[in-house]
Amino acid sequence: MKRAGFSTRWLPLLLLLPQLAIIAVFFYWPAIVALHASFYLQDPFGFGSTFVGLDNYTSLLGSSQYRRVAVFTLIFTLLVTVFALALALLLAVKADKVLRGAKTYRTLLMWVYAVAPPVAGFIAVILFNQSWGPLTEVFMLFGHTYMVGVNFNDTAFAMILASVWKQVPVNFIFFLSALQSIPRSVREAALIDNRSASGRFWDVTFPLLAPTGFFLMIINITYALFETFGIVDTVVKGEPGNNPMTLVYKVYVDGFRGNDLGGSSAQSVILMVLVLALTVFQFRLLERRIHYT
Amino acid sequence: MARITLASVAATLAMTSAATAQTEIDLWHAMGGALGETVNAIAEDFNASQDEVVLTPVFKGTYEETLTAGIAAFRAGEQPNIMQVFDAGAATVIGAEGATIPVQDLLAENGVDFDIEDYISGVRYFYADSDGKMIGMPFNSSSPIMYYNKDALDAAGVTPPETWEEFAETTAPALAEAGYIPLAQSHLPWIFTENFMSRHNLPFATNDNGYDGNDTKILVNNDAIKAHFSALTDWQDAGYFKWYGTGWGDNQTPFEEGKVAIWLGSSGSFGGLAQKDLGFDFSATFLPYWEAVTTEPKQTFIGGAALFAMSGHSAEENAATAKFFEFLTSPETQYFWHKETGYVPITEAAYELAQDDGHYERMPAAEVGIQQLSLPAGENTRGYRMGFYVQIRDVMNREYGRILTGETSVQDAFQTIETEANQLLERFAKTQG
Nearest CA of chain A to the CA of B420: how many Å? Predict the structure, then answer.
């Protein structure tokens, strides 16, 4: 077999250069600066600084507040990922069966994708307005005085709802196209073997969706960890107080609001390590169980 | 409003065409909405008043965002001539000696008369160093005051409470009886912590409230304030007090809707409230105090923000900045600012001008802020200077929220605030080393 290759050694490097340059400028360089800054306590204006070794890390790990935020982030990420995936899958399976007006349904379901996270957060703020929010009134019917911004769980619910709502369309698009790429012959064969629709779904369709599902799970975890920033920011109105926040939002609160560069750098290094560990875990352990066709 | 916008467009056009021989300076501020329009109007008036300097005001978002933008710009050597920094950020900007030119030096070097005694007593030393030299020019100065719904108080047959004892025993039960939520407030760290200390003349931190050094310890964990927060939780249970979260507006809205009878807000809220069609008459008076703590209540701190002249600019531009400060502190400009926004005039002369013009006869509530700032001073009423104070406020907001939602006790919350605030202060001291 003829092996395709480059005639010189320099051409591939040259072609890689733009991408490498972008990664270097937007990832490696800031990452190194953050790592360096995490060992210092420095005056925000850049006048004084003291080398403090691992102090920034030890004080974070010893802080009960940091642990609270970490635990919340974990629960938040889990709930957002599970619900965003489950709802999208349900909608995709149903949309796949629709024959008349299918395009219209699909377009309507995808629309939300175009909404920016802060806007999604703002919609949640309006829906849960303390005095006239429609969803606040719904909760009132069930005897619960819903107080977003006051009650920790109420605020958390508003954040999770907005985050799930915002992410469902992306998952929907991927699941739907995955469903449509399942060969007709496979489905027909399954129909002969198993009369129960749910049985067919779990035995045949679901495993075939696994590669897509795995990919989406990674995307969703990353989304819940990082991209929900805009939603968190609008729901807490920039003043977290006793409200829940995610780890990324805390980096912003301490670094950009509080001007604690050392402490917030240490937090971003911890997040970087977390994401690295997560990625390794996902690809090493989970991907083995996924079969690509 | 449309008129001002058109005018500012015209002014911008005029600026760009005539900018050649003029010194251009910029001002980064955090005044949004109607306040921003007023800042633009002042800049226009300044630009029209002379033809050597052109000032461009730039809105940079919230106070925190403005400070962060200014710091980032400074590190990149692109800092504005003037930057607005709020009370909680004062330690950061004043601690970074060399980042700013003390306003007192700037004015002296450029031949502008400066006498700290010209300023009203409450604003003199908040943005000063430990020797009393003014570093930042107080700009939008406000203080927490007590607004009340006159109709509600009349219906309940009570007068605005002077003390918290009176509130608890007389005012609140009558207002609750009349169907109102008696009390709400908009900023627990500012109103019920910082100014609680000032009003009762209690020390807020060691080192003379932090002015005299970096090894400062916070003194927030004291019996007077813990008793106050215990009273708040009792009032909350009795329906005398309601907390609507950390957001400022969430607590102000129920007052505007007529549900809450007494609301503690900023003297700078006055302009906004007066413009709204509230459906009831409102007025304002001094912040109540605990008679059990003191029988001689003192003045409060100024809140709001100050303008800092950033270093690293040419002598010509610094002279232009001094010129703007001179214009800004003139009685006419101060009176205009005071009248439009409700922020207090910072000089005695401007205050007199407002009095002579009959402003307070037309709107008595507009005078409350400045009167409260002019109450007798005590040894602890000058202000406070603590590093990482934005984060200390975050800790307070978090713990106060947890007290008021029943997640923690007053005792534990203040213990946590003390511990975490002292850790932050210790960390801040290291950033200065």
Answer: 9
Phi, psi of B303 (to 5 degrees): -105, -155
Closest CA to B215 of B433, B429, B430: B429
Contacts with A, B 41-80, CB within 8 Å? 62, 64-65, 67-68, 71, 74-75
| Chain B residues touching A243 at Cβ < 8 A | 245-246, 401
- Asked whether the domain spanning B144-300+387-431 has the same topology as the one spanning B2-141+302-373, the reply is yes
How does pLDDT run across A33-84, given as a tens digit for each residue?
999 999 999 988 988 888 999 999 999 999 999 999 999 999 999 999 999 9
Q: Quick one: closest CA in A to B75, which residue? A: A45
The Cα–Cα gap between B267 and B300 comes to 12
Task: Tell me, yes or no, if A215 comes closer than 8 A to chain B by beta carbon.
Answer: no
Provide, for chain A, the percentages of residues in helix, strand and coil under a 3-state DSSP scheme, each rounded to the nearest 5.
Answer: 75, 0, 25
Q: What CATH topology corresponds to B2-141+302-373?
A: D-Maltodextrin-Binding Protein; domain 2 (3.40.190)
CB contact under 8 A, B245 and A149: yes
CATH number of B144-300+387-431: 3.40.190.10
Give the Cα separation of B317 and B302 in Å (integer).
29
The dotted CATH code for A64-289 is 1.10.3720.10
Residue B77 above 70 pLDDT? yes
Q: Tell me the domain boundaries of chain A.
A: 64-289
Contacts of A45 in chain B (CB under 8 A): 71, 74-75, 92-93, 96, 98-99
Interval A131-154 mean pLDDT: 89
Looking at residue B289, its amino acid is Y
Has residue B133 got a pLDDT over 60? yes
Cβ contact, residue pair A241, B397, below 8 Å = yes
ipTM of predicted complex: 0.86
Q: What is the pLDDT of residues B283-338, one digit of tens each?
A: 999 999 999 999 999 999 888 899 999 999 999 999 999 999 999 999 999 999 99
So where are chain B's domains?
2-141+302-373, 144-300+387-431
Give yes or no for A30 touching B (CB within 8 A): no
The CB-side HSE value for A87 (13 A sphere, CA atoms) comes to 17
State mean pLDDT over B109-119.
Answer: 90
With contact defined as beta carbons under 8 Å apart, do A164 and A80 qualify?
yes
Partner-chain contact B64 A44, CB within 8 Å: no
